[in-house]
Design goal:
Layout: E1 4-8, H1 13-26, E2 29-33, H2 43-49, E3 57-61, H3 64-70, E4 76-79, E5 97-100, H4 109-114, E6 119-120, H5 133-147
Parallel strand pairs: 1-2, 1-5, 2-3, 4-5, 4-6
Length: 154
């Protein structure tokens, strides 16, 4: 099994490239939900992922519903600055899915409202609205890996 990072309509190729590198380094699966804000042959995307693209388990989906339909037994956690519970308040299991929205808007409010019990946030202070998407994905993924004793990582 592996953890899953789901990016719903990502807009910035460098973020997706950085997340792909994190997935390659951890064995996490990457799910990209269309429409994407870039072409997958974008040089910024490729540069951010360096030469690790061969090590990334990546799937493309035409909708978030498709991700849900293909993984009916999956446990999904929805990252949002609008969530009330911190990401560290949950116990994660190998195979969990972490869902992140587009950089400019996050996840749709209706998705948050329908999944309030599984919405997670990263605490921040001050006037900062949110952290960078690739940083957020790494923070949440490494917490899940830590809780599971870093399976298969050296």
């Amino acid at each position: 099994m592996a953890f899953h990072i789901v990016l719903v309509e990502p807009e910035i190729p460098a973020n997706t490239g950085n997340i792909s590198r994190t997935c390659a380094a951890t064995g996490a699966h990457l799910h990209l939900v269309r429409p994407l804000g870039f072409q997958t042959d974008d040089k910024t995307l490729k540069r951010a992922g360096l030469d690790y693209w061969h090590a990334v388990h990546i799937e493309y989906h035409d909708s978030f519903q498709e991700v849900l339909d293909l993984n009916p037994a999956g446990r999904f956690f929805y990252a949002s600055t609008r969530a009330t519970k911190a990401y560290s308040d949950f116990e994660y299991k190998d195979g969990d899915f972490f869902v992140f929205g587009k950089e400019t808007k996050g996840l749709p409010q209706e998705l948050i409202d329908a999944n309030l019990e599984n919405c997670i946030r990263i605490p921040i202070t001050g006037d900062v609205r949110s952290l960078n998407l690739s940083n957020s994905a790494a923070i949440v993924l490494y917490e899940a890996l830590r809780q599971n004793m870093f399976p298969s990582l050296r």
